[in-house]
Specification:
about 35% helix; 7-stranded mixed sheet; 11 helices; globular; 16 strands; about 325 residues; 2 domains
Length: about 325
Amino acid sequence: MERMEFGRIKVIPGQNNGRFPFCNSLLIDDSVKAVIDPGAGLEPMRQLREGMDIDLVINTHFHFDHIAYNYLFDHSRIIINDREGECFRDRREILKRLGMTDYYGDAWTQGWLDRISRPDSVQSPYTPQNRHEWWLSTARLDGTYQWGEVMDFGATRMEVIGAPGHSAGFCCLYFPGEGIVYTGDIDLTSFGPWCFGADGDFDQFVKSAEIIANLDAGTYITGHEAGIVNRDDFRTALKQYFDIINKREARIMAALSEPVSLNDLCAMGLIYGKKFLVDEWVRAWDALTVKKHVERLSAKGIITCADGKYAQK
């Protein structure tokens, strides 16, 4: 990232180039001082907390990398979209929306709550599933906001643009006066669109991203990796980003050259790669995502199911 400040809006780059489980955060340094998605890392967020009084913490959605350091801002109001406020009021809702309840069942939930409640829990190799910050940063919620709401920070105005697909309540934040959009997890990464939770939807994601790309903005700030891009580059990269959905489905189609059961198909590691399936969350997301793609391919009429096995038509 080259330019980090856009008037009163400042980009706080996430550690490790904003790769998951970090994200690029924003600071609005105005009459009302606000942090958007405080997931840039412990040190950047701690320095910000110690350097100024933050009035407000805004979470675009409930995923770990965008809420991880809420807890540092103990004197600030914490808000999230009204469609996901329940994740802070009842942590079991987090597992439902991430798809873990569907995959592992209700009984698995209590073990997760026990693990995140302790700072010394054994960590997973590829996801922050057992991180204590889950517990700390969902412990308090001071309010919610709605899609379409306009927030006034003084000289800065921000519009909340509902953008479901990544999660049910996900939103992008638009600053019309500055011509800036914070796109969060419409992030242009080489991994592609993440819609893997129970509340994620590929078709909704594409529609939402197209709406965001057509806003009257010159600067797009992604939540991960790419960071600050201009409108033309964002639109160009978005086409490649969407094509990753097609590439995933091509891998699934190749695996269905002969009839395969859904369980066997889900065990192939077609989304993340087989070596990552040792992580419980990755294993669930890989399987849940394969199922979503199989449903899309079935709806298109290009695969069939007979005797419990799927195959190319």
